[in-house]
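Hi C.,

You asked whether I'd gotten around to modeling the 253-residue construct. I have! Everything is below, sequence then structure, no commentary in between.
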Amino acid sequence: MLNVYTKCQRSDGRTVWVHWDMGGRFFNISPGNLYSEVQKVRLDPAVGYKVNLLLNRVIPPVDPPKDTKWVKYARMKSELLSKFWGYPVYLGATVILPKGYDENLEVRYPVVYAQGYVGRPAFYFTDDSNTLKQQEGLRANNVQPGYEFFQSWTSDKFPRFLAVTFTEPCPFFPDGYGVNSANNGPYGDALTQELIPFVEKQFRAIGKPHARLLEGASTGGWESLWLQLKYPDFFGGAWVYNPDPIDFRRYRL
């Protein structure tokens, strides 16, 4: 494979070559990257080990996800990150709408910001009943399958709120971690000053600190804790599950 790089003249004066995928995908599935066909070779010490690899395939573009009745997608250019990188950077959000959203146009909603990778709908959400059997492995691990969650979400007794996940691509990993970084740029400020206000305005959120909750597990747990501690007056609380190490006192134990 060949991971195609882009030249960036950053605002800190550095010129760097990095790979950008605005969908936050890993390099091996990133559109525009090159790869060779699979071939069978024989490595013979008598004749040497020279093997020709021809990069004659290109990973094709990916169609943007389509909105459904329950799941909506939002995307915006981040001026803060674009200025830092000297390259247009886009942030995205996946939004699950509560029951009654389209019928009760005067209602505004609290938001749970579920942290994780590349903006997938939270909690394996799907309204396709055909996936129920396919997700038996999730149930075996005590994880609620997507269709079961859909049934809960659309029930009469389920609380009404927006569930939002982020797509925050960066060159070094499929996720920017919501952190302001000298190496990576102002991702925390971009989320709180640009993406979240954009989403809350578009989807009739309450837009107040008490109506913004964070939750996440593993890396998402780390991100939730970081955002709550860094922006304590912006978010109203965080549910943090088995986070990545938050310091080095009991690292990886």
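If it helps when you're writing up: The mean pLDDT is 91.

Thanks,
B.
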